[in-house]
Write a structure and sequence with these properties.
Number of strands: 7
Helix content: 25-40%
Order of helices and strands: EEEHHEEHHEE
Structural class: alpha+beta
Shape: globular
Mean pLDDT: 80
Number of helices: 4
Strand order of the largest sheet: 3-4-5-7-6
């Protein structure tokens, strides 16, 4: 099930509950002496999807939503690195899609698996990604090169050619 949310709306969670932010850690004076952060963890898997017009403001909006959901889910990986990846991929979509359709959008999908792996999918209306391998091998000199250094892996494809392409990045949680 896809949740479409706005920064001004409450965030839907499983079980029909809503909250404005991640639940705070319990304090002993409230009678929750045995509770731990792990005990308050939201169930896995989790998924968030949202799209915005193919404009520069999409980068900032994607960053706000990504930061919010990663914190809400208490993802165990490097949230700052994940945020850099989201911003780079959305920025690339906004910059490099030539002749976008009038209603062209960039879509961000964040998915967290049972194993705490984070999948970041960014889709745009362009069906091709020229120079993908060259950008990856350029190291941190390019945005995709920097993403490759931060992520476990990066791929792209056209699951629905009529809707364009999707770039997928897989990130691992921090080692225990």
């Amino acid at each position: 099930m896809t949740h479409r949310v706005s920064a001004a709306l409450s965030f839907p969670l499983s079980g029909g509950r809503t909250t404005e932010a991640a639940a705070p850690l319990p304090e002993t004076r409230l009678g929750n002496e045995g509770a731990t952060e792990e005990g308050l963890r939201l169930p896995r898997p989790q998924r968030f999807a949202r799209s915005w017009p193919l404009q520069r403001t999409a980068v900032r909006l994607a960053a706000i939503h990504a930061r919010t959901w990663l914190a809400t889910w208490r993802w165990a990986g490097d949230q700052d690195d994940a945020l850099r990846v989201v911003m780079e991929l959305v920025s690339n979509a906004v910059k490099h899609v030539t002749d976008p359709p009038p209603d062209g959008e960039v879509e961000l999908v964040l998915s967290m698996t049972e194993d705490e792996e984070l999948l970041i999918d960014v889709s745009d209306p362009a069906p091709k990604l020229p120079g993908f391998e060259a950008a990856l091998s350029a190291g941190a000199c390019t945005g995709l090169g920097m993403v490759r250094l931060l992520a476990e892996d990066i791929t792209w494809g056209t699951p629905d050619i009529e809707r364009g392409k999707t770039v997928r990045v897989r990130m691992l949680p921090a080692p225990a």
